Amino acid sequence: GENVEQHPSTLSVQEGDSAVIKCTYSDSASNYFPWYKQELGKRPQLIIDIRSNVGEKKDQRIAVTLNKTAKHFSLHITETQPEDSAVYFCAADSDSSYKLIFGSGTRLLVRP
Amino acid sequence: EPEVTQTPSHQVTQMGQEVILRCVPISNHLYFYWYRQILGQKVEFLVSFYNNEISEKSEIFDDQFSVERPDGSNFTLKIRSTKLEDSAMYFCASSTTGDPFSTDTQYFGPGTRLTVL
Q1: b/e A70-89 (16+ beta carbons within 10 angstroms → b)
Q2: pLDDT digits (tens, 9 = 90+) for B88-105
């Protein structure tokens, strides 16, 4: 069935360093790949998304890259700050519908 | 900025009881979704709803679950006879999706934490 794998499950970086989170997906027909940030007890908040007709997208300190051939996409956060600490989820849509299939999440800790 | 809202924020119920979780999607959105997240786990799709009918449902969404749009603003998830394993955070989401060839951004509500005792 459809699946999204996400790595690593936890990531600890020093403030100012970069963080990279990677996801792979199984449905070759997926076209939409959002990233959500979830702080403890809060709703998932969309931080960036990318569609299959684009290889890379950047928004200030956040960037996402997509390799459709390899079915990989990655989140890059540069100049990390303590407020970036949260759980990050990648997701992919499904060819059969608009549902999102989520990865298992990455707990990012940015040490001051 | 418009947001999806959900009530209640926390619902405690006894096993076997019925619960109704309520959502108010963003007003011009056309697609509505329910997801759930068991504590510490990933977000899982339950059901999508468009044009007053279910578009798709997952294997989790069995006969104990139902959804309804009783009026022009609310979107509800009913669990007919709750089980212990239904304890989770339930998120409602909505999207515009006017384009049948493109998945639009889904905006999530704050969630309802359901605790089944």
Answers
A1: ebebbbbbeebeeebbbbbb
A2: 999 999 998 656 566 788
